[in-house]
Design brief:
Elements: H1 2-15, H2 17-22, E1 29-33, H3 37-48, E2 52-56, H4 60-81, H5 86-98, E3 100-103, E4 115-118, H6 124-137, E5 143-146, H7 153-157, E6 166-171, E7 180-185, H8 191-203, E8 207-212, H9 219-235, H10 241-252, H11 258-265, H12 267-280, H13 291-298
Parallel strand pairs: 1-2, 1-4, 2-3, 4-5, 5-6, 7-8
Antiparallel strand pairs: 6-7
Helix pairs in contact: 3-4, 4-5, 9-11
The chain binds nicotinamide-adenine-dinucleotide (NAD).
């Protein structure tokens, strides 16, 4: 089925550029670059919603770990979804896993994919090198998308010759649970690419929102300055971090206070984002660094994942 669809899309793009421009890409086969936290989640939801998935990472060991993580996560989903019918749950897990193939050689697989979703390390040079290389091997119709949280999509797209078929697809952690996907349109992204990605996110059972290629897109642009403002309030001694957390939970109805959330997101991640924005626009008061955040990160206190951040977690 996927083969027929790919052949169809390819023949459309080669025979008639005008009609191809009007037709959206129906994504059936997805290549996910990076089998870490986000890539594994994206591969899982894509496979569970009927797509065939090629998952790529640097070593077979990482890929084996990644696939094991996907299996565990699928078992949790199956337990809830098929509570009354464990056999159907097992079938769902096996069927989904069988739709995911793994490889360490992305260049050899992208010729037959409709969409490449990149979720590798947050480093512009590394992302650019990978996309530049894959651009030469991918099919003409293939859409490239990056899951970057903090880099400009345009600066990644510029490493390729397919800026019109390049966009941002920003998923949220944990991917199988979080409903939102931000679909990021650069000035070069074609309407056809954008609409194809919106359809793809809906096929995953997610809720897409659209945003231009602006720092932080929607969620992080509002969330990170809020977290940084909470840190500044605490650093000035205006209130304790415990009271700030309580205030936002009980007064604003947030499920978590900003310091709890900072420890959950990761202080290293937050510092990385704010440093990147500060470098882009050092005069913006929302993008100013924080002394306590820098200090904690220098001490390798990243929050929940290291056991200590603004709070102790053990
Ligand atoms: N963690 C989050 O909450 C979150 C949320 C949204 C977006 N993102 C973005 O998603 C991307 C991945 O984040 P993550 O948290 O999954 O990172 P991660 O470190 O868990 O996973 C990254 C994976 O990419 C692999 N990798 C690195 N270079 C590679 C290459 N050249 N080819 C193939 N694989 C390669 C690594 O081996 C690793 O398994 C980043 O761009 C990040 O900004 C992260």
């Amino acid at each position: 089925m996927a083969f027929v669809t790919r052949q169809f899309v390819r023949s459309v793009s080669s025979s008639s550029t005008a009609s191809a421009a009007a037709k959206k890409i129906i994504v059936k086969h997805v290549t996910v670059l990076g089998g870490g936290l986000m890539g594994a989640g994206i591969a899982q939801v894509a496979a569970a919603s009927g797509h065939t998935v090629m998952l790529v990472d640097q070593t077979d060991e990482i890929l084996a770990k990644s696939k094991k993580g996907i299996e565990e996560s699928l078992r949790k989903v199956a337990k809830k979804k098929f509570a009354e019918n464990p056999k159907a749950g097992d079938e769902f897990v096996q069927k989904t896993l069988s739709s995911i193939t793994t490889t360490t050689d992305a260049a050899s697989v992208v010729h037959s994919t409709d969409l490449v979703v990149e979720a590798i390390v947050e480093n512009l040079k590394v992302k650019n090198e990978l996309f530049q290389r894959l651009d030469k091997f991918a099919a003409e119709h293939t859409i490239f998308a990056s899951n970057t949280s903090s880099l400009q999509i345009t600066s990644i797209a510029n490493a390729t010759t397919r800026q019109d078929r390049f966009a941002g697809l920003h998923f949220f952690n944990p991917v199988p649970v979080m409903k939102l996907v931000e679909v990021i349109k650069t000035p070069m992204t074609s309407q056809k690419t954008f609409e194809s990605l919106v359809d793809f996110t809906k096929a995953l059972g997610k809720h897409p929102v659209s945003c231009k290629d602006t720092p932080g897109f929607i969620v992080n642009r509002l969330l990170v300055p809020y977290l940084m403002e909470a840190i500044r309030l605490y650093e000035r001694g205006d209130a304790s971090k415990e009271d700030i957390d309580t205030a936002m939970k009980l007064g604003a109805g947030y499920p978590m206070g900003p310091f709890e959330l900072l420890d959950y997101v990761g202080l290293d991640t937050t510092k990385f984002i704010i440093d990147g924005w500060h470098e882009m626009d050092s005069k913006n008061p929302l993008f100013q660094p924080s002394q306590s955040l820098n200090q904690l990160v220098a001490e390798k206190k990243f929050g929940k994942k290291t056991g200590e951040g603004y709070y102790k977690h053990k």
